[in-house]
Amino acid sequence: GSDQIRHRRPPEPLDAVERAGIDSFPASDPPPWLGGHR
Questions:
Q1: Structural contact between residues 5 and 18, judged by C-beta atoms closer than 8 angstroms
Q2: Whose CA is closest to 18, among 32, 1, 37, 30?
Q3: Which has the closest alpha carbon to 10: 27, 30, 37, 35?
Q4: Where are the domains of the chain?
Q5: Are residues 33 and 14 in contact, defined by beta-carbon separation less than 8 angstroms?
Q6: What is the CA radius of gyration of the chain?
Q7: DSSP string of 16-32?
Q8: In Å, how far are 5, 17 from 35, measured between CA atoms?
Q9: pTM confidence score
Q10: CA distances from 6 to 9, 28 (A)
Q11: pLDDT in tens, the chain (38 residues)
Q12: Beta strands in the chain (DSSP E)
């Protein structure tokens, strides 16, 4: 949910990502703000 994203607070705005939702990212390749590879 949004609580997890609020917690992390990425440095850049992620309006588009928030609209798409975290589910659009495969578990094997998580977005960088979740601690994935950069």
A1: yes
A2: 1
A3: 35
A4: 2-34
A5: yes
A6: 10
A7: HHHHH-GGGS-TTS--G
A8: 12, 16
A9: 0.19
A10: 5, 22
A11: 566 656 566 666 666 666 666 666 666 776 677 665 55
A12: none
What type of residue sits at position 9? R
Q: What distance, in Å, lies between the first and last C-alpha atoms of the chain?
A: 23
Query: Residue 15: what residue type?
Result: D
The token duo for 4 is 């997890």
Pair 29, 36: CB distance under 8 Å? yes
* Residue 18 in tokens: 């928030």
Check residue 32 and give its pLDDT: 72
**CA 10 to CA 38: how far, in whole Å?**
13
